[in-house]
Amino acid sequence: MSINVVTIFSAPDAQEGKEHLIELIESAQDFICPCCCREEFRVLEQKTAAYANLQQMSPTMSAFVIEVVHALSPLSEILARCDYSQRAPSLDETTPGGEFFELSNAVWRKEFWFANDIDPRHVVLLMDHVKQETDWLATYMPSGKAAVHFGEFAK
Ligand SMILES: [Zn+2]
Q: What pLDDT does residue 18 have?
């Protein structure tokens, strides 16, 4: 199974602002709204959460990665639409999750790659994308932003 990858090579653009967030909201608008999803998961006692980390992908490339756990339908369909793929959970910064063997153990994963020697301003831009993405994810989760973890892996 291949994974969709987002790579940023373009120059940082101050005009861009919240464009990424708007894109995500538009991609998800055919589905249940965030408040109804959150309420449904709250009733089901789903501990939906997101883990954002920096990972070494190759000797020359790194990536910000987001892994979402306990994402039932309809959030799973929204994530699939927004370039997330089901993978095994990552172990740490140098051990990205690969193929999953048990569906019950799979996480929804998205990767934002960049070259290690890229201008640091690109990395700042990419971090802003990741923050917009986790803010958006939080709107679907019963615990909201408290369910978003940076620099921490799913246990
Ligand atoms: Zn609603």
A: 82
d(CA 60, CA 51): 23
Asked whether the predicted pLDDT for residue 8 surpasses 70, the reply is no
pTM equals 0.88
For 38-78, how does the pLDDT look when each residue is reduced to its tens digit (9 = 90+)? 999 999 999 999 999 999 999 999 999 999 999 999 999 99
Tell me how long the chain is: 155
35 Cα to the center of ligand 1, angstroms: 4
Ion ligand 1 neighbours (CB, 5 A) are 33, 35-36
Continuous segment of H or E residues that includes residue 66: strand 61-69
User: CA–CA separation, 16 vs 22, rounded Å?
Assistant: 11
Cα(91) to ligand 1 centroid in Å equals 35
CA distances from 140 to 6, 50, 72, 76 (A): 22, 11, 11, 11
